[in-house]
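Journal club prep — side note

Before the paper discussion, L.F. wants everyone to see what a predicted structure for a comparable chain looks like in token form. Sequence:
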Amino acid sequence: MRLISKSQPALMGVDISSSAVKLLQLSRAGNRYRVEHYAVEPLPPDAVVEKAVVDVDAVGNAIRRALTRSGSNATHAAAAVAGASVITKLIPMPADLDEEEMEAQVELEAVNYIPYPIEEVNMDFDVIGPMPGNPDMVQVLLAASRAENVETRSSAVELGGLTPKVMDVEAFAVENAFALLSDSLGLPGDAVVALVDVGSTMATLNVLRNGRSLYSREQIFGGKQLTEEIMRRYGLSYEEAGLAKRQGGLSESYETEVLQPFKEAMVQQISRLLQFFYAGSEHSRVDRIVLAGGCASIPGVAAMVEEQLGVPTVVANPLAQMTLGPKVPAHALAQDAPSLMLACGLALRSFD
């Protein structure tokens, strides 16, 4: 199993997040994609904590239920390890090495970059292209993660009834999905785009330029805080609060007293993430903010980000240009689309 890419057809993209597993399977005809199967299955609280799989059985069972509901007969999957648990480095290598020589050389070099014993690590590499200004050398992207991070995810996927063929890195998979969005943004290639994914427990910033990730950072903040506030204020269970958040039906005071303060907090978190980026780079602004993750679907949040931060802001929909297969519920998919960036990037590995 590879840690970056290279795969076979009909891979089910499996995104294991803190609150749910999201499955997505695509097909392609020419340069057009079609959503063939999709499902989102909630996870019990604390099955995944800060992107680490804690309860493999609970995650595996959720994948199995989602796979059944999606109607797919796929047997192979692509999943991803989270950014914080992955070390990535660009290392220079002589351009004239064949693949075997390159692999041996990368393994020798890797010990200089990885702070764990090599036998405790899963790693892979990909040749990115020639070194700028030096045609005799190439840039090689090294990706490594502790074996336990890879194994818990692989075990959960296998329990769910799928064979993990690709173990990607979240940031690379998101880059893959972002390529589908970039045309619709109407920006020049060298524009600096902040992709902010606000999920259940984590807010992740990926800054991209020319389709490549310049910077990423995550911090603890997400929709779970809104769910917990609904629980506390309205005396509901965690499940009831989550349902009420999605389907409505709470008292009139909800909008002003609960939702509005959460939206304000979300804007502050996005501003904070961007300030970290500005402080550590030569950039002092971004050209566009793209909101992804479950919290991106909150009505009015993109307009509030744009107004308060002064940057044009849109909600991500990586599936906007795709047709839908007969088993795909269109309304549910439209609602979930902003949270399917990672699953989409993984499903696209079918076509590498």
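L.F.'s comment for the group: The radius of gyration is 20 Å. Keep this in mind when we get to the figures.
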